[in-house]
Design goal:
The chain is an alpha/beta fold and about 260 residues long. Helix content is about 45%, strand content about 10%. The chain has helices at about 1-15, 25-35, 50, 60-65, 85-95, 115-125, 140-155, 170-180, 205-220, 235-250; strands spanning about 40-45, 75-80, 105, 130-135, 160, 190, 225, 255. The chain has an 8-stranded parallel sheet, with no helix packed on it. α8 packs parallel to α9 (about 205-220).
């Protein structure tokens, strides 16, 4: 019944906005209704054939997520490689704020900025179901990074967090690292490809960032997989900061420091 209701509301919302419903999504929903199968995943990557030339933008995502606010059946929502911006992210935030079913949210490689991430992060202050969040390759900047850090102080459900290539400056990286000293819920963390954006900073400030990250590694007992690749780690940082931290840590199973 939930899938039938969703299809009806989705197509009606598209008609209201004078938009063409996604053929692949309609087909999947129709087949599920005919067979009685359950649908728990929407994988709507912008690089699939149907969407490659017509990627989901802020307007197109609204009809997709709006009906889900009252029909909780989806566990995985993958909207990666699309053209979502802050408006689209805000609509998604409204959906996830009170949802109690969705477990995986993948928004990597979109066009979401700081305001969109702030909305998502605030929603996750209330959501206690999502355990896998991928925000990689969105230019979220300092304000977005600080919002993620604030969310990490409150949220206890996210165990897999990906913020690779988000152009996070030193202040955000330090804030996130500081929160990790007390947040032991996250088991997999990808902070890779952010330090290169601080390439114009002094070596002292870069060392300061890695000092905070190293301190968190030494104190944290939740993380099992940590990705710090493409972080411009120097020999000094490796020998004097990371090595002692890893010696103190007994939980990390995989540490990626590759260039």
């Amino acid at each position: 019944m939930a899938i039938e209701d969703y299809l009806e509301k989705y197509t009606a919302h598209c008609k209201k906005k004078k938009m063409t419903p996604l053929a692949g999504l309609v087909k999947k929903l129709t087949e599920a209704i005919d067979t009685g199968d359950l649908i728990e995943e929407f994988v709507l990557k912008g690089n699939i054939p149907e969407l490659k030339m017509n990627r989901i933008n802020d307007d197109a995502v609204d009809p997709i997520v709006h009906p889900l606010s009252s029909l909780g059946f989806l566990k995985v929502l993958d909207l990666s490689f699309n053209e979502l911006g802050d408006k689209g992210a805000t609509n998604i935030a409204k959906y996830i704020k009170n949802d109690s079913v969705l477990e995986v949210l993948i928004l990597k490689s979109n066009k979401i900025g700081s305001n969109g991430i702030i909305s998502i992060s605030k929603a996750l202050h209330y959501n206690s179901q999502i355990c896998y969040l991928d925000l990689s390759n969105n230019t979220i900047g300092d304000e977005g990074g600080m919002a993620v850090a604030n969310m990490m102080q409150v949220n206890a459900s996210i165990t897999n967090l990906f913020i690779s290539g988000c152009k996070l400056p030193a202040t955000s990286l330090i804030a996130i690292a500081t929160v990790l000293q007390a947040n032991n819920y996250i088991q997999q963390l990808d902070m890779s490809n952010n330090m290169l954006s601080t390439g114009t900073l002094s070596q002292t400030l870069q060392n300061d960032v890695m000092t905070h990250i190293s301190t968190s590694i030494a104190m944290n007992y939740g993380i099992k997989v940590l990705n710090l690749s493409k972080s411009g780690i120097s020999d000094y940082i490796m020998c004097h900061l990371l090595a002692p931290a890893m010696k103190a840590n007994r939980n990390i199973e995989t540490l990626d420091l590759s260039w």
